[in-house]
Amino acid sequence: MIDAKERTMEKQKKGKRTDKEIAQMIGGGRKIFKIILGLAAAVEAVGGTARDLERLEPDKAGAAQLLGQLAQLIVGKLSAPVVQVAWNTMLVWIIAACQFVNGVHSDITAEHFPLRPGDLTLKEVIAVTIPHSMSTPEVLKLLDGQGLRPATLVELLWWWLTHPAEQANCLVVALGSVWAGQSPCVDGDGGYRRLHLPSLAVDWGSLYAFAAVRKSAAPAAA
User: Fold this and answer.
1) Cα–Cα distances in angstroms (integers) from residue 136 to residues 23, 129, 149, 202, in the given order
2) Residues 78 and 22 both lie in one domain
């Protein structure tokens, strides 16, 4: 028979968390905090306030519908017209989370860079360097030869968010998204952070790298 002392010790043992579990909890908390900050920044960027965010509280009227639309956008189940309307806000949200303190090119908008199939599917995005100056067709051929396709704007921003250690020294282009003969590029140099649109017409110097995804990953249809 288990006495009271043994029962108490057993409860304490069951309730004690391992270092790994604690680390996972902390990591999860940080992710949630970043998501909340990103959403708040996106709402503010389009003229909203904290009161607008309160509409997402589960007990508020209409909150279930708003949360449902956001969830459907994330998993890619909204109809095309609704997705594009929501994408306007979502892109602002994502860019705000990236914290490009030195500016974002004014032509990087949801209208110019619409959401594409597979954009919101999590995947590994890598930055491929080049050995010397190359033209855009040469870079695309290089990527294709490695079984890669050029990343889209969304995938480039995902790379940026998941590689904070590289933000202080990078110049990475997403050739998978093109508008008016230009592709998005993240530029980090020390504390400098910028998202801009360089032209595809000029050769790329060896300082540039190119965001890419394995062809076996979710496709980025044109």
Assistant:
1) 43, 13, 13, 8
2) yes
